[in-house]
Automatic annotation (TrEMBL):
The keyword Protease does not apply. Its main location: nucleus. One of its GO terms (biological process) is methylation. Residues 36-129 form the Methyltransferase small domain. Belongs to the eukaryotic/archaeal PrmC-related family. The gene is Dwil\GK19357. PANTHER family: METHYLTRANSFERASE N6AMT1 (PTHR45875:SF1). GO terms for cellular component: cytosol; eRF1 methyltransferase complex; nucleus. This is Methyltransferase HEMK2. One of its GO terms (molecular function) is protein-glutamine N-methyltransferase activity. It holds the Pfam family MTS. NCBIfam families: hemK_rel_arch. It catalyses: methylarsonous acid + S-adenosyl-L-methionine = dimethylarsinate + S-adenosyl-L-homocysteine + 2 H(+); L-lysyl-[histone] + S-adenosyl-L-methionine = N(6)-methyl-L-lysyl-[histone] + S-adenosyl-L-homocysteine + H(+). Heterodimer; heterodimerization with TRMT112 is required for S-adenosyl-L-methionine-binding.
Length: 217
């Protein structure tokens, strides 16, 4: 998979939108590593939650443009604008919805779901800021995860059965402090199979990519 060009985004853009970093590139590497699986799955709807600059969903669009609709969602309208800009810069087709998680989408319709959530462990007081519109310079929404760094992630996991298609797959980025083993056990109870697909140590962080699929019946 090609890493999309992002030189069109400026320092001013990154005052409003999360800049691609080591976690973004780990997610790209995981998707590239699993390309054979994804090609066999032949996804029709690819969705990235919290697209930020748009590098992940744009890369997916470049790969699956002939067979899939690639859709980004973000609660930050500036991120939606940046995502569309990145797609255009890289000659990719990406639709973007300014919404929370996958709220507007039809149930069990997503074949490929990608999520780099706000995962940094913070106080719940910081998370209370989410009662304010997640726009403008509130970059706290892109990283502040509340208790265990999982406030947003746990909401998504509770909705996952209604989001993924029968053969759908989720690639979820986690920090060690998010307690990935606990998440794996929780998903097992919900009849999902979750595995640590890739991990990477970077200064100050130990990152994981969790691959989640439905248990075959």
């Amino acid at each position: 998979m090609e890493t999309p060009h992002t030189e069109h985004l400026t320092s001013e853009d990154y005052e409003f939108v999360y800049e691609p970093a080591e976690d973004s590139f780990l997610l790209l590497d995981a998707l590239e590593k699993d390309l054979q699986f994804l090609e066999e799955q032949q996804p029709h709807l690819c969705v990235e939650i919290g697209s930020g600059s748009g590098v992940i969903i744009t890369a997916l669009s470049k790969k699956f443009s002939n067979s899939a609709l690639c859709l980004a969602t973000d609660i930050n309208p500036r991120a939606c604008k940046a995502t569309k800009s990145t797609a255009l810069k890289n000659h990719a087709q990406v639709e973007c919805l300014n919404c929370n998680l996958t709220q507007p989408l039809r149930k069990r319709s997503v074949d490929l779901l990608v999520f780099n959530p706000p995962y940094v462990v913070t106080s719940d007081e910081e998370m209370q800021l989410q009662n304010i519109a997640a726009t403008e310079r509130n970059l706290v929404y892109s990283w502040a995860g509340g208790q265990d760094g999982r406030r947003v992630t746990d909401i998504l996991l509770k909705q996952l059965d209604d989001i993924l298609s029968p053969n759908g797959v989720l690639y979820l980025l986690l920090l060690r402090e998010n307690k990935p083993e606990e998440i794996i056990n929780y998903l097992t109870k919900l009849r999902f199979k979750a595995v640590k697909f890739m991990e990477r140590r970077i200064p100050g962080e130990h990152l994981y990519i969790l691959k989640v699929t439905r248990v075959s019946t």
